[in-house]
Design goal:
The complex is a heterodimer. By secondary structure, chain A is an all-alpha fold. Chain A is 70% helix and 0% strand. The two termini of chain B are 33 Å apart. Classes of the chains: A mainly alpha, B alpha+beta. Chains A and B meet through helix 2, helix 3, helix 4, helix 5 and helix 6 of A and helix 1, helix 2, helix 3 and helix 4 of B.
Chain lengths: 192, 213
């Protein structure tokens, strides 16, 4: 598969990330890993910092995630998950393991299979990559207070219950902001 | 907020926290078990993971050390990719429970847990959270009880009724603080569930309260 061209400083599209993963999975393509690293390593480090890892541990998280992507790229199936969801699932599992010390069951591979691996393949004509692009555009357009609680729910190492008490917001308010944000995103993911 | 609405929200919140990777271990296994058995939950989990993917993709980058790329490249092996270490499924035990209990639910060290009930604690303690398998004989009723905290239950085999609601294999029930209930196993066979709680059970009857004091 050839990697689609795009301007050098634009964020990579879903199709481009998927193509990098395919190039690593099939050809052990180091150039594709370097591209993947350039986009993702600083963001995965930020993801670790948001969970209060220290800078060294967050950087290690980024490196370990990229090394795992190298080892598992051939398991990525673009018909079953968006490339960005797959990268996120691996980074998240690495973060759980780093924060919990002992590896909690279910194992990393099992968690990966559960949330992205066993999905039924998309119907013909349903372009998951395009659905992923639309998802990102709509996330960027969410009202700021909804986007903020959603980002906290995903990035801080705490349940949304803990988020509510941290902000002194009633739990109901946090829940309804998250619910509203997810309802919009869900509607657009179903409407392919 | 009605109890039903509250329970529905708790289910949504459970899957979100699972996708985000913030659940305590017993709840993580419970959420994974629910998703493994229930296609609606599995689809929701995939959507929530896609949202996580979009958020990570557009997260503000943190500056990274100049030699970080070199270090990562040095660690790459050149051999073929690893196979996924997912235990083969088979039998009735959902995949997330296989590493904990194996493939044969009948041959676990069940121990007596009251009238026509048996339990197996799972080694997943995390803070206040505890997980156990509970088996209730066909048609038997669990004595009326409440919880100081929350109780999450996924039905693994058989079925049960709790008030107006019915639960079958793969279904998830959430009972939040304070509510009392007395579930009844279906008459056609024993019912086995995975249950996770963060506070001890409080029986309502005076005799049981005395016995479990």
């Amino acid at each position: 598969m050839s990697v689609p061209a795009q301007p050098a400083d634009a964020p990579p599209s879903e199709a481009r990330i998927a193509a990098w993963l395919a190039a690593i999975g099939r050809n052990r393509d180091r150039a594709a890993l370097i591209e993947l690293f350039r986009h993702y390593a600083p963001r995965i480090k930020a993801f670790g910092l948001r969970a209060r890892m220290d800078a060294g541990a967050a950087e290690e998280l980024a490196q370990e995630t990229l090394i795992t992507l190298w080892r598992k790229a051939h398991l990525f199936d673009p018909a079953r998950a968006t490339a960005s969801a797959w990268v996120f699932a691996i980074a998240r599992n690495k973060r759980i393991d780093a924060l919990r010390r002992t590896v909690p069951p279910p194992s990393e591979d099992l968690r990966l299979a559960l949330d992205v691996g066993q999905a039924p393949a998309a119907d013909e004509g349903y372009d998951l990559g395009r659905a992923g692009e639309r998802l990102r555009r709509h996330l960027a357009a969410l009202p700021p207070e909804q986007a903020a609680v959603l980002a906290e729910a995903y990035f801080e190492d705490k349940t949304h219950q803990a988020i509510a008490s941290q902000h002194g917001l009633p739990l109901g308010t946090v829940k309804s902001r998250i619910r509203l944000a997810l309802a919009r995103l869900r509607a657009l993911m179903e409407d392919a | 907020v009605s109890p039903d609405q509250d329970a529905a929200e708790s289910v949504g919140a459970l899957l979100l926290d699972f996708a985000a990777g913030t659940l305590p271990r017993p709840l993580s296994v419970l959420a994974a078990t629910h998703a493994a058995l229930n296609p609606v939950a599995a689809a929701e989990l995939r959507r929530l993971t896609a949202v996580g993917g979009a958020l990570l993709h557009d997260l503000d980058p943190a500056p990274i050390a100049d030699d970080a790329l070199e270090t990562a490249l040095a660690a790459l092996d050149t051999t073929a990719g690893e196979e996924a270490a997912v235990p083969p499924t088979g039998g009735d035990v959902p995949a997330p429970l296989v590493p904990l209990i194996g493939y044969d639910i009948q041959r676990l060290p069940w121990r007596w847990a009251g009238w026509r009930m048996a339990s197996v604690p799972l080694p997943l303690d995390d803070g206040d959270w505890r997980a156990q398998l509970l088996r209730v004989g066909a048609g038997a009723r669990v004595p009326r009880h409440g919880h100081g905290g929350s109780e999450y239950t996924v039905c693994l085999e058989g079925g049960y009724r709790d008030g107006e609601e019915r639960f079958a294999r793969g279904d998830l029930q959430v009972v939040t603080g304070g509510r009392e209930h007395a579930p009844v196993a279906d008459a056609d066979g024993p019912c086995t569930v995975l249950t996770v709680t963060n506070a001890p059970v409080r029986f309502s009857g005076r005799l049981l309260r005395f016995l479990t004091r």
